């Protein structure tokens, strides 16, 4: 591999915290808080238990697992943390990527920040770089490869980038790390998991593990081919430092696939507007884009199938007036009124919604009452898109709803305060909270 530094890598390595706009720094800290809240919420789910048990058994090391405490290797930590975040489908995302930057990137950033004793300013700088790098790597890969791959694919390259920065690797070694990560990253077809929902989800854990492993291999002298999405797709990197994609992430008010969230909003709009109760409704009819129709599981038998469904969470929304984690696990999957509405739901495709995807996700809903009355929603979009983002208070409320019952209100509040002032202090107390079992 030539030893010159690619332009995107040079930008990242020359990035200083002072060059990052304050609004970007604030938003990335909120994104870290949101992602850690989702990780806390994911701890109770079986996918997290299995991945943490696997890492503890098969990947021993010295770093205590996030909110668990058992020691594992850095790749094992990244795997378990990525899968724990992915277990509860409530993390942030990026519309043009049709996926999620934080879920595969943040586990690697946190693991290497701890391993290399980084301070808060270094971690914040790495996270900002990860969002900017990950957004462009995702768009470049989607434009240059024929299949729609999971976030773990380009997330592996992004994880390698932030890990290399925190490890202080020189440019030539970092280029090898990026090449190793791109070559070995999980080129997993996203729609296979959409059509057959399982715990493989969006590939975040495997991508994080690959990114961490790539940096460790490169640091030891292992070489990699150039990362094509970084070095041979220049159009996607030209606006680095001018357009800040960290400000263009969406957040999820509900822990299900983003593609189901416009229909959920339409159902909730009708429920509020007309004072509906589930027993008044014969069926729900959804008109939306093709990918949302592919979330076709109407009788889920697992949390993953419930999260990758349009009909089930729409029925949950009509019955409960919300979609919360407890609606997607255990006995809640067998709620007879939810299942009645889910099985009766009809979906149809919209050319206009298809044309707008993936940058925008539209849906309209008609509710048919028992007496034959039809109630139609306006065209709806998911809440908390970057064009109408949640407030800091809303994201803090979401975090505390997930974290307080598990960590305790005091520790959760302290964690939020540490993140809010991340750039100003050491991270010893952060690690004490993150790396011990609640």
List the topology elements.
Blueprint: H1 7-14, H2 22-42, H3 46-58, E1 63-64, E2 71-72, H4 74-87, H5 102-115, H6 120-144, H7 151-167, H8 171-184, H9 190-195, H10 204-219, H11 228-231, H12 261-274, E3 281-288, H13 290-293, H14 303-307, H15 311-320, H16 336-344, E4 346-349, H17 351-356, E5 363-369, E6 374-376, H18 392-407, H19 409-420, H20 428-434
Parallel strand pairs: 3-4
Antiparallel strand pairs: 1-2, 3-5, 5-6
Task: Jot down its keywords.
globular; 60s Ribosomal Protein L30, Chain: A; 438 residues; mainly alpha; 6 strands; 2-methylcitrate dehydratase PrpD; single chain
The CATH architecture name of the largest domain reads Orthogonal Bundle
Distance from N terminus to C terminus (CA atoms, Å) equals 46 Å
Number of domains: 2
Strand order of the biggest β-sheet: 4-3-5-6
Instruction: Tell me what portion of residues adopts beta-strand conformation.
Output: 5-15%
CATH class of the largest domain: Mainly Alpha
Total count of helical runs of at least 4 residues: 20
The main β sheet shows up as: 4 strands, mixed
Tell me the overall shape: globular
CATH superfamily of the largest domain: 2-methylcitrate dehydratase PrpD
Helix content: 40-55%
């Amino acid at each position: 591999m030539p030893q010159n530094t690619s332009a995107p890598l040079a930008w990242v390595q020359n990035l200083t915290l002072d060059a990052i706009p304050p609004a970007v720094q604030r938003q990335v800290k909120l994104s870290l808080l949101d992602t850690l809240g989702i990780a806390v919420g994911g701890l109770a789910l079986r996918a997290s238990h299995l991945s943490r048990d696997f890492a503890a058994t098969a990947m021993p090391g010295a770093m205590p697992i996030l909110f668990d405490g058992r020691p594992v290797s850095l790749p094992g930590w990244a795997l378990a943390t990525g899968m724990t975040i992915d277990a509860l489908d409530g993390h942030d995302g990026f519309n043009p990527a049709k996926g999620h930057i934080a879920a595969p990137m943040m586990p690697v950033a946190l693991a290497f920040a701890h391993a290399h004793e980084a301070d808060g300013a270094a971690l914040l700088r790495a996270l900002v770089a990860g969002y900017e790098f990950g957004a462009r790597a995702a768009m470049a890969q989607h434009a240059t490869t024929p299949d729609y791959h999971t976030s773990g694919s380009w997330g592996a390259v992004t994880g390698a980038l932030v890990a290399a920065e925190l490890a202080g690797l020189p440019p030539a070694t970092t280029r090898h790390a990026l090449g190793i990560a791109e070559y070995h990253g999980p080129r997993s077809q996203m729609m296979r998991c959409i059509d057959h929902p399982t715990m493989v989800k969006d590939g975040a854990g495997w991508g994080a593990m690959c990114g961490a492993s790539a940096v460790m291999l490169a640091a030891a002298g292992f070489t990699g081919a150039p990362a094509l999405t970084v070095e041979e797709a220049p159009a996607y990197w030209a606006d680095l430092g001018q357009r800040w994609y960290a400000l263009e992430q969406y957040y999820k008010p509900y822990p299900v696939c983003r593609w189901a969230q416009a229909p959920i909003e339409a159902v909730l709009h009708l429920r509020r507007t007309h004072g509906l109760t589930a027993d008044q409704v014969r069926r729900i009819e959804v008109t939306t884009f093709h990918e949302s129709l592919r979330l076709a599981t109407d009788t889920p038998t697992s949390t993953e199938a419930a999260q990758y469904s349009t009909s089930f969470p729409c029925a949950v929304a009509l019955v409960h007036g919300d979609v919360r984690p407890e609606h997607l696990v255990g006995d809640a999957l067998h709620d007879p009124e939810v299942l009645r509405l889910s099985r009766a739901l009809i979906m149809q495709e919209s050319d206009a919604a298809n044309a707008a995807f993936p940058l925008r996700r539209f849906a309209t809903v008609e509710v048919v009452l028992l007496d034959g009355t039809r109630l139609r929603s306006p065209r709806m979009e998911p809440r908390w898109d970057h064009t109408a983002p949640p407030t800091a208070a809303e994201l803090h409320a979401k975090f505390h709803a997930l974290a307080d019952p598990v960590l305790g209100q005091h520790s959760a509040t302290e964690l939020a305060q540490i993140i809010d002032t991340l750039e100003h202090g050491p991270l010893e107390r952060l690690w004490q909270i993150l790396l011990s079992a609640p």
